[in-house]
């Protein structure tokens, strides 16, 4: 794992100047970046900054981890190492961690950032809904994914984006039953 000290120091400087506020982390693995098929886990801080009198969202890459395969343990160890770096610089911990739907991520996030909310990405959910086959978690064999019979996928995607913005869990549950 490699961290990016200039980016971590920028977070620390923003915190010391009382300009950091709440921020989130985003973590995702890429694959087949090199010829040897290594997986790279990138963790980025997402925060809002006032640049030239205009508020904008900035993504600061904080770490990269190179590994032969994507695993929940890879995420967990990377989050713990990043946590150590944040603690050393006296940077407050993130309020939210955004990831894909990879199994086992919740444990790693809770171990490193117990107060952070784990949010899985909508784009990954919609991409997963569009798949016709997936690998069984236990055996690894390909299994067919049932298709949504009552609604076309594009309609479901629109409703999911709307559901993601409702303010309370009870409204989410009610609208999910009605729309889907």
Overview of this protein structure:
- The chain has 180 residues and is of the alpha/beta class.
- It has helices spanning 5-16, 72-88, 105-112, 122-130, 153-163, 169-179; strands spanning 2-3, 24-30, 39-51, 54-67, 96-99, 117-120, 133-135, 142-144.
- A hairpin with a 6-residue loop joins strand 7 and strand 8.
- The protein is built from 6 helices and 8 strands; from the N terminus they run βαβββαβαβαββαα.
- Helix content is 38%, strand content 28%.
H-E string = EHEEEHEHEHEEHH
The global form is globular
- Determine Rg (CA atoms, Å): 19 Å
Adjacency order of strands in the biggest sheet: 1-4-3-2-5-6
Write a compact overview of the structure shown:
The protein has 180 residues and is of the alpha/beta class. The protein has helices spanning 5-16, 72-88, 105-112, 122-130, 153-163, 169-179; strands at 2-3, 24-30, 39-51, 54-67, 96-99, 117-120, 133-135, 142-144.
What's the helix and strand layout?
Blueprint: E1 2-3, H1 5-16, E2 24-30, E3 39-51, E4 54-67, H2 72-88, E5 96-99, H3 105-112, E6 117-120, H4 122-130, E7 133-135, E8 142-144, H5 153-163, H6 169-179
Helix pairs in contact: 2-3, 4-5, 5-6
Task: State the main characteristics.
alpha/beta, six-stranded mixed β-sheet, two-stranded antiparallel sheet, 6 helices, 28% strand
